Amino acid sequence: MKKFYFKSIIALTALFGLGSMNVAAQEVAEEENDYPVLPVKMTYVSGSDADVDIAYGECDTIKAGWNLGNNVAVGSTITFGNKGWGANWIGILKVDGTAIPGIITKATLKAKVSGSLDNKRTTGWGVALTDNKWSADLTYTTVGAWTVSAVLNGGEQVWGTSKSATVFDEISLDITDAFSNGQSSATLLVYEGVKAGNGGAAGGFMTDVYVEVESYDPFEATTTTFDFEDGEKLFTDDSRITSAIEANETLGSKVLGWTCADNAQNGYCFSHYNFADKLNKPALVKIEFDYYNTKGGRAILNIGDGQVRGTTGGSTKVTYNKTGVIFQIGSDKNNAFINGINIGQDNVTTTYKGFDEELGDSIEVSETQLGLCDRWMHVTLIANNDAKTVTWFVDDKETGDNIHYGTSAFFADDANACTQIDLFGYINKSHCAMIDNLKITNYKSNAVFADYTVKYVDANGNEIKESRSGNGQVGKKVSLLDSDKAAVYNDDKTMKYIYDSDNSETVAIAEAGTEILVVFREASVYYAVLNCKAGSETLKQFRSDDLKFFEGDNFTIYPSRGYKGKDGAYYFTPATSWNGTSYTFPGALMPVTNGGKTYYIGQLEYEKVDSVAYYADIETLALPTTDEGNGVGLGQLVGTVNSWYSFSGSYFERFSGGRGIRLDAGSYVYTEPIAEAGTYLVTIYGRNDVSAAVENPYVLGILKEDGTQLDYADLTISDWGSATTGTSIVEGVAIPAGAKLVIKNDSADKKISFDDISLTKTGEYAEPNLVNGIQEAKISVANGAIFSISGQRLNAAPAKGLFIQNGKKYVK
To answer: Which of 253, 283, 617, 759 is most buried, judging by how many CB atoms fall within 10 Å of its CB?
Structure first.
């Protein structure tokens, strides 16, 4: 039994007055100020047949997958996580509050959660209400959409931990809205998501889940108590059994005992008490009593529907069957059940694996479940006749220790109400059972519920979208959902309405029906203007009636990262991040009104650069007239690429919104022909995509105009790690006029990416010596720099081989 179950027992004992609590337990409850605790059933499901290995029903630890957090909204359909991260699950919780004798007004979901599977990302947890039916036999793969009927906890995500998936932190989620219309139970979706600025997540785990009920509006309670001191037996002995008032030394009081007849085993022995006349259409019925089973009598005590079981227990012989039963407790492991769980007559010790947080390791935990015989027990049962659910506690009366606890649907499908107690015996001439201090409490809800309508109108009272209906307690206010105030667009998206006001705080729900008005106003229309400038010169302006957006919306323009100006020079934005460049309105500039229109104006500055190669996001504003400065602009790149990467014709485009060009193993790209011969410094900005352990997958080569291929040079990129960027500089690359610079992925199976390439001319062209592979590179300064025979600058001389230093060739 889990730790939080014990907490549940203490709290609910205090709540329902279960009796038989020892002083220590009472002190614990008062000292910790425990709230009523609701049990939570959990399961999780997958969205992929490929992941099916076993069937998952109810379980102690659930998983939730990445990709859900930012997509959850009222009316949305929950999509499954990103399978590529190994997290492809939705966590589903069933909260059963049917044992609370009132209407829940404040409830908090408590749980322990872990971080991601890869121990690198921060995990965010959210919770939503769904109308989908929770089932204990849900399998790992489910069919059909899970829809959100309300976003709970104010829509906020609670952050857990970025530690290992085996280390758990506690979180709290407000789920009061799940019970806002008087519901006593709810099906929840828990989702693990990602929040901007926190690095994303890749799946998380949740365990030790329970719900604290911090407040509720109590039902009206009427209690009838029988202590048998007045000699009233209550029970009618129907067959082969005799009930009688007798003294009990252990309790020091009179009790009601049963004795089976001499021919008990020849037929049923049955005694019953129907208490339907003590009830008045109750929302809940609570039954408490002290009970002793002698083991030898094989006594079975049933609580069930008196109308179904009648005076024979629903059977001519086997009266311990489940006909009309909601709960059953007995002595024999073969025919005594507590709602389907076999309970033996003796103590049973079980051992299971646990986790010690202080030790940080798994441990073995032993737990003894007490038997149900030869001891006075205190039994408490709370039945919800409307929901057909039952919660029970069986405690050792002397010690106060819990023997058994549970909650479930009624034991038998044909049981509709809790109105009768039965006692069955099955051993000849046996004193089989005793009962004392029987207490029956009738909880009647005085709350009245009625329908209400939420209507969405413009300033003139015209409906702008379909209204929704709800049901709530008369006299209470309606709590509007986030979706009630969400912006509304007309069908062709030419108009937008923004929430303005509502009357939910002033109008209470009435029996005759209530209409809540949510008023919207028309949103203002704005226009976007973006000036792409280089100093005082405007390279390009984005301005059009198509660039309009509504108040409350964002409008994003994606200008080219680079422009070739009218002067033939190249200009680019200072931002060289992997996300490329964009400008989002309304931006920081105040709006300007002109001709009845409101304009938001943005400025994006560009800088002049001598030689930079851009891919598909460079835009030529006018054909160049002359080559500028000390190098050559390379323009577009062409080459080979895997088919699933983005390219157009022979020119590459940026993929994933501007993360550069990605090459598979063996793929290559090359520049446009270099117009001016010379020795160049080549700068490449890129990254490894798979592993920092990849050794020199980039190689550099020259393809001459006549088709001759010159030597390739490896690029030293040891500082480029997985998913990080770096810059590689190769000095002394001799390129003849009309030749193309080639960049190739020379690895066996790795992918690489790169972004910008620039060339700066450092000297005159010298044809490489293809016989010995040594190029006569000109070194302008004898500064001790070391180069490979292909002109690559090295951090140190190689252990063996040829290299160049201060213009001289050396062999090791």
So the answer is: 759
